């Protein structure tokens, strides 16, 4: 009996040890391989791990990746995080310190991301940028707006300043004899006509004007807000006072406009619970004729409508105002044109030499041919190109599988010669470029507020909920204002104070 | 005499001493194998359940992940003060308790009734067929069930709303109206879990002594009387046990389920502890505060279980421990 027991105990112990050894050994082996690879292979092939955000349904296959690896001389390993769960995944990765050489941080106003950046967990890169030709080209403005407390904790994603606008069914406009709207009133009329005059001609009243989703920012609300002169999150008065957007007249006007759309039935009635994919699907199915969002979505919508609504024609509009005056044109700039940061955690990138190695890789990603790879794919396989560098995607399905997932990982999306030959995409690019002249920046974007960092997202919920309730006619303006007071009481006033102090400090510099 | 006396004394003392020295350790030694067998279970609970509880200390800190537990500043009861002074807390408590009560009052009796009804079905094939059909929803995930309901209930072409409109009624925004949230929530739980929950009751019913039924029949009892006076009393211990277990677990109202139903317009009735912990902690990074909320929720659950267990014992039942 006794020997048997001790045997069993020994066995259990050994098993446990073995297991833990496996776990530990595996981890060690990996890291050893990682650093060993870079040391041994030297300039030949460096290994890069990248915690990246995925905006498509599934990660890309290896075809394009291999080409990118070839061009950059790196061995890239992605860990993809779906965009929809980026907040919790990034937060848990930060909390458990399971990061990679490169971490894509897109939610810079999330409190734990901000705290992590400020805590010195990531390398400060500003002083290194000028050593690399492509990174050196990042403008001072961009560097400043991507900084937190004046420090740049990564390579900023350079995006177009303002990408939003209105996409309208051109064929429906023509059919009903309407012209492309220039003012918000005309837009309302178009929505009315689309709802009431049977634009698809099937004899049934089954269409609406707008097709929106449950998103007050990237959906219709914020873009319409710009047309009514709403500031981008914050407004600074001449005497240095900060006013939150929801205390401005423009915001209330926008709410009234959306409320009218809702009450008259010119918008899908369940927009408050509609997901983006549903919104786009329904638009493609011809259930509505007005889509407010990123202008380049026009091309995707048209693609989706193939075989469902073959006569769909789209008009892109970026010059709507509430007054009709050209001088009032405005469009909010998402994150002031910064798509986020490519950050390098000190726990993974151990020393300066390694940092330079990773920066070199990011720099290479911005080369013309790598940009072409990440945008259009492989020449002859995914696209053809003419003498004017105009690209036609030849195999859309393959492109969607193998190339599209990389699009959001491009460190820079502007300033390349190669472009899309698709007229709708070209039009979108043109309008987006035009938008930059009217971009409304968020003056608080690079300001610091302790309260905003810790409680901002929490407090914003009060406003978001109240706005939805107002739009759906559940509360009136007085009750909305009471909610704003509630916001102030719960910490909003502190945010205002802190921003005003921070703003003053920057003005005095 | 003296000798024999002392001898007797000694003899008396010795076994007494032996009894006294038969401590827990001795018993463990004697039943080594048995204790060895429970060792993995005990280890499991220590390693995966009790050690992680140490992490609860972050409820008393301003926890920053990169500073770790040792480096984060201690803030005492700050997060508890915040929790109990914020209006959110009462909203969370109210919503959680109301849904909990609905769950017990409305959902809990249903499987018992269904099991009794199934028990009366005499056609075996039909009974098996019905059982299989009603078990299926249990294996669907909440995502699927909520999506199905979405398709049925949406105002934009949802089946139910189209029907209401056809019949001349006004469309109801089931998905956003706060007053419909609880109905939808309980309805979905019934749809998903009703069939599956009958299993234990059905098996409890099968062991009821058939002689009791025969005796009842002799006394002229009909079907209903037999159910009321024989079946139900026989399965009462099972019902009580399940009720206590249910009370213990119902405070976990199902994060996934509620999170899928939650939106800006029904938050005032739909936000429960689980969803709040998730958004505040994982999405907004307030790890310490959400730990505080979680700790409080755990305490409430513990109190509920202990209270119901005591209540069960008072009524002469066994309880779960």
Shape assignment of chain A: globular
Strand line-up across the major sheet of chain A: 2-1-3-12-4
**CATH hierarchy, class of the largest domain in chain A:** Alpha Beta
Number of strands of chain A: 16
Oligomer: heterodimer
Let me know the average pLDDT of chain B.
85
Q: What's the CATH topology label of the largest domain in chain A?
A: D-Maltodextrin-Binding Protein, domain 2
Keywords (chain A): Signal
InterPro entries (chain A): Bact_solute-bd_prot1
Signal peptide (chain A): 1-20
Organism (chain A): Paenibacillus rhizosphaerae
Explain this structure to me?
With 509 residues, chain A is α/β, with parallel strands linked by helices. Chain A folds into 3 domains: 46-161 and 336-415, Periplasmic binding protein-like II (D-Maltodextrin-Binding Protein, domain 2, 3-Layer(aba) Sandwich), CATH 3.40.190.10; 164-332, D-Maltodextrin-Binding Protein, domain 2 (3-Layer(aba) Sandwich); 450-507, no CATH class. In chain A, 48% of the residues lie in helices and 14% in strands. Chain A has helices at 2-41, 62-72, 86-96, 111-118, 126-129, 133-136, 140-145, 170-175, 184-196, 220-227, 249-264, 276-284, 297-305, 352-365, 368-376, 396-402, 404-407, 423-435, 450-471, 477-508; strands at 46-54, 74-82, 102-105, 155-158, 164-169, 208-210, 234-236, 242-244, 288-294, 314-317, 331-332, 338-343, 383-385, 390-393, 419-420, 439-440. In chain A, strands 2-1-3-12-4 form a 5-stranded mixed beta sheet, with helices on both faces. In chain A, α2 packs antiparallel against α15, α4 (111-118) packs antiparallel against α19 (450-471) and α12 packs across α13 (297-305). The relative contact order of chain B is 0.10. Chain B is mainly α. Chain B has 2 domains: 24-58, no CATH class; 65-199 and 234-315, MetI-like (MetI-like fold, Orthogonal Bundle), CATH 1.10.3720.10. Chain B contains 17 helices and no strands. Chains A and B meet through α1, α3, α4 and α19 of A and α3 and α16 of B.
